[in-house]
Amino acid sequence: MNIGKVSKASGVTAKMIRYYEQIGLIPAAGRNNAGYRSYSVNDVERLKFIKRSRELGFSVAEISDLLDLWNNRSRQSADVKRLAQGHIEKLEERINDLQQMANTLKDLIDCCAGDNRPDCPILEGLQEPHNEIKDVHHHNDLLSVSPLTRKK
């Protein structure tokens, strides 16, 4: 099977197939008489496995480990489960980090009047360390209070 057919069957681009071959996730393809790469049905299945693993966020190193386990018929499912659980922990950390980023941006957006004034708490907040962003929010609260109602 040529690279175009394998690409279509696996859902992996020809460029990525070459890359996976280069880094050793798939074995080097044989060559036909014309010198073109020639792949097997097993290569297609392996590429589908890699694609699905990438969709789930596994790193190349983790995929390599998963492929080793997949190919090892004497594997222990505990090893596969351990790898998957470790990946879930990384995903949950990333989700937490992303949620913190979203909350920080929401705080900055809440601080911004979004009017014609040039001052922008969002831009100020982007130049401040994370722990000082609340101070920008407090500063904006002071700016939004009219001079007549500010305490002296």
What does the radius of gyration come to? 26 Å
Helix content estimate: 55-70%
Which CATH architecture of the largest domain would you pick? Orthogonal Bundle
Using the coordinates shown, work out and report the CATH topology of the largest domain.
Answer: Multidrug-efflux Transporter Regulator, Chain: A, Domain 2
Element-by-element helix/strand order: HHEEHHHHH
Q: Mind describing the biggest β-sheet?
A: 2 strands, antiparallel
The structure class reads: mainly alpha
Strand content: under 5%
DSSP strand tally = 2
Tell me, rounded to a whole number, the average pLDDT.
Answer: 87
Count of individual helical segments: 7
Features:
single chain, 152 residues, 2 domains, two-stranded antiparallel ribbon, 2 strands, elongated, disordered C terminus
Write a concise synopsis of the structure shown.
The chain has 152 residues and is mostly helical.
Any chance you could write out the topology, listing elements then pairs?
Elements: H1 3-10, H2 14-23, E1 30-31, E2 37-38, H3 41-55, H4 60-71, H5 77-111, H6 121-126, H7 133-144
Antiparallel strand pairs: 1-2
Notes on the protein architecture:
By secondary structure, the chain is mainly alpha-helical. It has two domains: 3-75, Orthogonal Bundle (Multidrug-efflux Transporter Regulator, Chain: A, Domain 2); 87-144. 64% of the residues lie in helices and 3% in strands. It contains seven helices and two strands; from the N terminus they run ααββααααα. The protein has helices at 3-10, 14-23, 41-55, 60-71, 77-111, 121-126, 133-144, and strands spanning 30-31, 37-38. A two-stranded antiparallel ribbon has the order 1-2. Helix 1 crosses helix 3. The radius of gyration is 26 Å and the shape is elongated. It starts with a helix and ends in an 8-residue tail after the last helix. The model is unreliable at 140-152 (pLDDT under 50).
